[in-house]
């Protein structure tokens, strides 16, 4: 194939890509119109039966055009997730008039390029208003920014699929009056980042946040005799390596974040678990109202009476109200040796009957209970198409 022929093909691909963007924009506009109807008629955002029918039809049509089922499913899972999250954001904005700000001042750990920075960018990309990023050096400072009206929101990581819960954040939640108003899950992809061309064998010093070292412990064990230096944020580690500008030092962080500091990756996928995700919460001074059409989570903290079976009795209240618990975390109560506060996440809305009933009963049988927030769930589980149905579609 000659160079002119290749250029012509590439020009056609570019034109098709532009056309795809226009079609995706048009499709998103139509789904926003669907959201208007759902608001008016109180229809839930998710309709997984319809999503399954849509995927089956698309698989059938795609196969007729030479496209395999996995390819089609992957593409439309992303499109459906985008549609659901946009509709949820629209419904939430309508349920909280006056909450949209022309400027969103958001505090997070680290600076540009940290995982909290990337999560902040992701969450507020769906919200109206400009974004003012306020990097901080500690979780206490992050929370304090909102408490002192220096920020409107704070983004905080609470757990990771590899290293587990981030206890320092739970301890901050224990001592603040801020409310959880949102959540998101962000994929964490650790890479070995350097400022100069080098080899893995040449690296003598590694910089990273302690949580990152925990998540990459298997990789560190394979490295052998390398000095590990902990930093207060991933962005600090990347900045340090950039400033040193040597071929024997490296940072562990995201490749996208490293690019902001002139770093590049010499090895990727460093985490112990290849499916490595962190869950972040968004907190603010005022709670939000979550429309009943939107899947919601509620987070509360409680301490039980000091008697055998007290925690089991409390958890049975959730079972009796058919409420699914997604998280249970215990933290010591300062000044009260051997006593624990339990942080609990459940699926459900505080405006809904089952959650209301459960909270009333829990207040009756526990020593202390406080709702930390009811907020839209942004964990969008992809609609599954059974293999038998996919084959039938073909």
UniProtKB/TrEMBL annotation:
Keyword Amino-acid biosynthesis among record annotations: yes
Record field: catalytic activity: chorismate = prephenate; prephenate + H(+) = 3-phenylpyruvate + CO2 + H2O
GO cellular component: cytoplasm
Statement: the UniProt record of this protein carries the keyword Lyase: yes
Domain ACT: 299-376
Location(s) in or outside the cell: Cytoplasm
Pathways per UniProt: Amino-acid biosynthesis; L-phenylalanine biosynthesis; phenylpyruvate from prephenate: step 1/1; Metabolic intermediate biosynthesis; prephenate biosynthesis; prephenate from chorismate: step 1/1
Protein name: Bifunctional chorismate mutase/prephenate dehydratase
Transmembrane segments: none
């Amino acid at each position: 194939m000659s160079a002119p022929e290749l250029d012509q093909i590439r020009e056609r691909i570019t034109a098709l890509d532009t056309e795809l963007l226009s079609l995706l924009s048009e499709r998103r506009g139509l789904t926003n119109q669907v959201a208007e109807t759902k608001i008016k008629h109180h229809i839930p955002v998710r309709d997984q039966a319809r999503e399954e029918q849509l995927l089956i039809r698309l698989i059938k049509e795609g196969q007729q055009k030479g496209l395999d089922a996995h390819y089609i499913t992957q593409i439309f899972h992303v499109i459906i997730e985008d549609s659901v999250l946009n509709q949820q954001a629209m419904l939430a904005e309508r349920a909280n008039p006056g909450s949209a700000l022309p400027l969103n001042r958001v505090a997070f750990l680290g600076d540009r390029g940290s995982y909290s920075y990337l999560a902040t960018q992701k969450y507020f990309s769906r919200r109206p208003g400009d974004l003012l990023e306020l990097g901080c050096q500690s979780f206490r400072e992050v929370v304090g920014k909102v408490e002192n009206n220096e920020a409107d929101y704070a983004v905080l990581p609470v757990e990771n699929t590899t290293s587990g819960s981030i206890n320092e954040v739970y301890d901050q939640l224990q001592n603040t009056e801020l409310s959880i108003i949102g959540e998101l899950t962000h994929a964490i992809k650790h890479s070995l980042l350097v400022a100069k061309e080098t080899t893995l064998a040449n690296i003598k010093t590694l910089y990273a946040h302690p949580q990152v070292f925990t998540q990459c412990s298997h990789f560190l064990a394979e490295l052998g005799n390398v000095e590990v230096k902990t930093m207060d944020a991933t962005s600090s580690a990347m900045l340090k390596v950039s400033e040193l500008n040597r071929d024997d030092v490296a940072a562990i962080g995201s490749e996208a974040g490293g690019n902001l500091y002139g770093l590049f990756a010499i090895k990727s996928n460093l985490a112990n678990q290849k499916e490595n995700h962190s869950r972040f919460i968004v907190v603010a001074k005022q709670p939000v109202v979550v429309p009943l059409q939107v899947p919601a989570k509620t987070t509360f903290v409680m301490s039980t009476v000091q008697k055998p079976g007290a925690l089991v009795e409390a958890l049975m209240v959730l079972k009796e109200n058919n409420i699914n618990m997604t998280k249970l975390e215990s933290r010591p109560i300062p000044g009260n040796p051997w006593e624990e506060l339990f942080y609990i996440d459940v699926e459900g809305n505080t405006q809904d009957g089952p959650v209301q009933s459960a909270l009333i009963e829990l207040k009756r049988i526990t020593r202390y209970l406080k709702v930390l927030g009811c907020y839209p769930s942004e964990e969008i589980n992809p609609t599954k198409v059974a293999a038998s149905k996919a084959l039938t579609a073909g």
